[in-house]
């Protein structure tokens, strides 16, 4: 029975073409074309590589591609299967018979690895905390509110190691970084400037504006205090 390589070379010779001629049209290197005609598949890295070139070459010569691939599978696909199996055994010798034993040394090594990993994770967290701007949350008051009480309660939270200033006045933080204080307002528009500064001088600022509209009682109280 005629081989795949003989069919290819016969079709090429009937068209009076050289391997270089085929290369110009298909862009397949002549050494691969020669290997296909000679049945030398050791040059190809895998079966997909070989079948791809065979398909292109067959189409160019006007051959029946499906028939040529069927002939090729009958003649050469087993060669690639054997080569792949041999490669697997070489790379993973005795894998199915390998047993893994855990000793106290392995356990100690694993614990040490976890501790080292945790230590570096902690350092990274500290670096991110110090290098970035501190977090600053203002719970109250809300922005652009109108109040009728001349004393406003201020609450919020920032990084524990940061310094908090409200209108350039330092506010003492609680043990969890939260803060709470009261600020006296002036009638009309009031601006509260919150600034949190960490050890590296990184700052986060939040501004709240509050409109204080004094009631008649508050006005009388303020007038009484001013006459004292």
UniProtKB/TrEMBL annotation:
UniProt KW keywords: Membrane, Transmembrane, Transmembrane helix
Family annotation (Gene3D superfamilies): Immunoglobulins (2.60.40.10), lambda repressor-like DNA-binding domains (1.10.260.40)
Coiled coil: none
PANTHER family assigned: CYTOSKELETON PROTEIN RODZ, PTHR34475
Transmembrane stretches, start-end: 105-125
Name under which the protein is recorded: HTH cro/C1-type domain-containing protein
Entries under InterPro entries matching the protein: Bact_Cytoskel_RodZ, Ig-like_fold, Lambda_DNA-bd_dom_sf
Molecular function, one GO term: DNA binding
